[in-house]
Write a structure and sequence with these properties.
heterodimer, A: mainly alpha, 69% helix, B: mainly alpha, 10 helices
Chain lengths: 298, 249
């Protein structure tokens, strides 16, 4: 089949889809019909409204409570009880977040171990890629912080790789795969870590007296505003990441419900996952470096 | 008379419309400004067209952040199950205030980020070899300009999901709370108009100057950070007042 024919088929399918989606709450199916046993296209009533789907995706505990279902993701009732005793109202949310973080960390660890094992003086394909990434961030760090503080490169590279892989893991179409950065706790933790490194560097560089005196500038009554400003650094750096990723996820759910999960969501998922995810990971890294740079050279 | 739940629905729909329409004004203007300056930059330096169009696209995508936030808030208001556990007029005013806060809050950053992107493109055409530094500075400046729209996002999310529940309020008390929530939305919305635009101006000029004097980059960036922090302080005042209106009354 040529490219043109494929495109035309998709286009026809898309038009059928659009016509069918005028009747609200119907879902298009394609495949073997369960009754006649033939290959055909038919539509069935959709079991969930958009509201229900958003609540199921973002507040699963509330959804489970409202519908009165026992959650299946744990495998057994005992495990669910165990998690509910610890996390209370947020059991399912926390469980899926921890599962995703575990998957991510194990993947990154295995990747690092595999790459470390095969290091050669004349690099091969994988090694070249990672050396390029490393040298890009080494240059970025040494340009912004100066050659003296180029030892910040591992930290910078780590937060970039972690946030980037967090952002793009939602692209993989497996049920239950969510971006860990969609949960506010992950970006907030990264942001607080970055801001505490900034303040540690400030104290180490200036000494404790001038550091405390910096809060009373330009005059003493401004001190509360300056302290709120420091907190707003952590808030703005972490809510930017959180808002972008959460926004992408919500827009994806609503739009895929409107077009009945066909064609459009794939492109949108790639846009939000890869493009916006990469840009936001880079912005987070750049902001963390430049907050440190401001404290070092003030 | 209208039922409680109907008032909540009316407010949610109105808030959704206000949020997304106000945000589109400035996002559209900002992206157009960037594209226009990128065009004139292209004519100055036609050989670096690849880099110019790439950096234009990236800056437009970042400029859209505020509009995406408003789209999210309006989708949440439309579909997000906000009417569960309704509180009548208090709930209605909080939803309307969330829409107003996000809509007004993303106006300033849109203008500002567009200005930054445009001047970064001009700087790129003047000094194409320094594209890494200029693009990095542009991203930092736009991120600083969008801090105020993030404050608005925080206030809007709190207004939608974290309103304290009160039982047995009299009508006067209900009206007082409703007006306080509306005031919180208006406060953060108008309070972020100026800082967003101003930080965009600071960052745009800084990018331009990095294009002219690349060796003075650290000095320029430091001045940019200090200037942005000082202009941001008024947005932080409005954030504090909005929190006080929401939780301290």
């Amino acid at each position: 089949m040529t490219k043109k024919k494929m495109l035309r088929l998709f286009f026809i399918f898309f038009i059928i889809q659009a016509i069918l989606s005028i009747g609200i709450d119907y879902r298009l199916n394609i495949g073997i019909h369960p009754e006649s046993g033939r290959f055909s296209i038919w539509n069935t009533a959709h079991p969930m409204t958009i509201q229900d789907r958003i609540i199921e995706e973002f507040q699963p505990d509330q959804y489970v409570k409202e519908q009165g279902i026992t959650p299946k993701i744990y495998g057994s009732e005992k495990l669910y009880q165990f998690f509910e005793n610890i996390f209370g109202n947020q059991a399912i949310n926390t469980f899926s977040l921890l599962r995703m973080l575990l998957i991510l960390n194990i993947t990154l660890l295995v990747l690092a171990l595999l790459l470390n094992k095969k290091l050669t003086l004349i690099p091969k394909k994988g090694q070249v890629l990672f050396e390029m990434i490393h040298s890009f961030f080494y240059e970025l760090t040494s340009e912004t912080l100066g050659k003296k503080f180029a030892n910040f490169t591992p930290y910078v590279l780590t937060i970039f790789i972690f946030i980037w892989s967090c952002n793009i893991i939602g692209v993989i179409p497996i049920p239950g795969f969510m971006e860990p950065t969609r949960n506010l706790n992950v970006p907030l933790g990264m942001g607080l870590m970055a801001v505490s490194i900034v303040h540690y560097m400030a104290i180490k560089n200036k000494g404790i007296g001038p550091y405390l005196k910096g809060f009373t500038e330009p005059f003493f009554p401004m001190a509360p505003i300056n302290i709120v400003g420091e907190f707003s650094k952590a808030i703005s750096i972490s809510f930017r990441l959180f808002g972008n990723i959460l926004g992408g996820a919500i827009i994806l759910i609503v739009i895929s419900s409107l077009v009945r999960f066909i064609l459009l969501p794939v492109g949108l998922s790639l846009f939000f996952g890869i493009f916006i995810g990469t840009i936001q990971a880079f912005v987070f890294t750049m902001l963390a470096i430049s907050y440190i740079a401001v404290e070092l050279y003030e | 008379m209208l039922e409680n739940i109907e008032i909540v629905h009316i407010a949610a729909y109105l808030g959704a419309a206000i949020s997304v329409s106000l945000a589109s004004v400035s996002a559209g203007y900002g992206e157009g400004y960037t594209a226009g300056l990128a065009n004139s930059a292209l004519m100055r330096q036609p050989k670096s067209s690849d880099q110019l169009s790439r950096s234009m696209l990236v800056s437009q995508a970042v400029t859209e952040t505020g509009a995406i936030f408003s789209l999210v808030i309006s989708l949440l208001l439309l579909f997000g199950g906000v009417d569960r556990g309704s509180l009548g007029i208090v709930r209605a005013s909080s939803l309307l205030a969330a829409g107003i806060a996000m809509g007004l809050g993303s106006v300033g950053p849109g203008f500002g980020s567009g200005y930054t992107g445009g001047y970064a493109c001009m700087a790129l055409s003047r000094m194409p070899k320094r594209h890494n530094e200029i693009t990095g500075n542009m991203l930092i400046g736009q991120a600083l300009a969008q801090a105020s729209s993030i404050f608005a996002l925080v206030v809007a999310l709190l207004l939608i999901y974290a309103i304290p529940a009160f039982d047995n309020l009299t009508l006067i008390q209900q009206i007082i709370r409703a007006v306080a929530y509306l005031g919180a939305g208006l406060c953060i919305g108008f309070g972020t108009l100026g800082p967003g635009t101003a930080i965009g101006y600071v960052a745009g000029r800084a990018s331009d100057m990095i294009g002219r004097y690349p060796r003075q980059r650290t000095l320029t960036m430091r001045t940019m950070f200090v200037g942005a922090a000082v202009s941001e302080s008024t947005a932080i005042y409005s954030l504090v007042i909005a929190f006080l209106l929401m939780y301290a009354l």
